[in-house]
From TrEMBL:
Superkingdom assignment: Bacteria
KW Amino-acid biosynthesis (keyword) present: no
Protein name listed in UniProt: ABC-2 type transport system ATP-binding protein
Presence of keyword ATP-binding: yes
Length: 229
């Protein structure tokens, strides 16, 4: 079973308006990293909002770990973590520890379980010793690491990331790439990310889909995409 399955997905924001997503189909295999590429306005954000249950599709289906987002939103969301706006989805005035425990509680974890998960995640990203410091005082790279950890708090199978390395310096970009690769390789997480950075595609993505005007114009292993260019 695929970790993410989008089938003939169409979204019109207005009843007779243009299709922002136009009959899009794609599948992402478990444990792989999938790059979702395309120019601005191509329909990437619309697709991601449907996958996260923020928008409903006009027609077609989106499934996370086999669960239809429209029919079983709670089930699908329990298998999904998302970092949609860089590190803006964490609270800057809360500490790293408070952020993770807070998101864990929101996801329905008991306090002890949320704490255990937070400890493990903060240790993995090297922030355990700084867990009591406000996230707003961290570097952008570390804020992004905390945002990724928050998305992972309930141990979802699937992680969605919108431009995960946008605006990060070289060292932080390296750290985020290493982190995402380790999550896929060592923990079997399935990752779908959008990016405009070729180095991210090259180094990280197993497969890419290029979309334009809501349609897939390419969907192939990264090495084939690179061989063409
Ligand atoms: P991308 O993320 O690839 O830049 P989007 O999914 O944001 O693309 O946009 C796809 C199309 O849908 C664009 O033509 C955009 O103008 C349109 N669109 C996006 N959001 C809305 C909205 N809330 N209302 C109407 N049209 C929208
Ligand atoms: P600043 O941007 O405030 O100058 P740096 O990015 O130089 O901070 O990072 C300061 C410390 O944090 C360094 O020890 C660096 O290795 C570490 N660091 C940087 N980015 C990350 C990251 N994404 N995750 C974990 N540690 C990081």
């Amino acid at each position: 079973m695929s970790a993410i399955t989008v089938t003939d997905l169409t979204k019109r924001y207005a009843p007779n308006g243009p299709a922002a997503v136009d009959g899009l189909s794609l599948t992402v295999e478990p444990g792989s990293i999938f790059g979702f590429l395309g120019p601005n306005g191509a329909g990437k954000t619309t697709t991601i909002k449907i996958l996260t249950g923020l928008l409903s599709a006009t027609s077609g289906t989106a499934r996370i770990d086999g669960l239809d987002v429209a029919r079983d939103r709670a089930g699908a969301m329990s298998r999904l973590g998302a970092v949609l706006e860089g590190s803006r989805n964490v609270y800057w005035t809360l500490s790293a520890w408070q952020n993770l425990v807070y998101f864990g509680r929101l996801k329905g974890l008991r306090r002890a379980a949320a704490g255990a998960r937070a400890e493990r995640l903060l240790t993995e990203i090297g922030l355990w010793d700084r867990r009591g410091e406000q996230v707003g005082t961290f570097s952008r790279g570390m804020q992004q690491q905390v945002a990724i950890a928050a998305a992972l708090i309930a141990d979802p199978a699937v992680l969605l990331l919108d431009e995960p390395t946008l605006g990060l310096d070289v060292a932080a970009t390296r750290a985020v790439k290493d982190r995402l690769r380790a999550l896929a390789r060592d923990e079997g997480k399935t990752i779908l990310l959008t990016t405009h950075q070729l180095d991210v595609v090259e180094e990280l993505c197993d497969r890419v889909a290029v979309i334009n005007r809501g349609r897939a114009v390419a969907d192939l292993p990264t090495r084939e995409l690179l061989a063409q260019s």
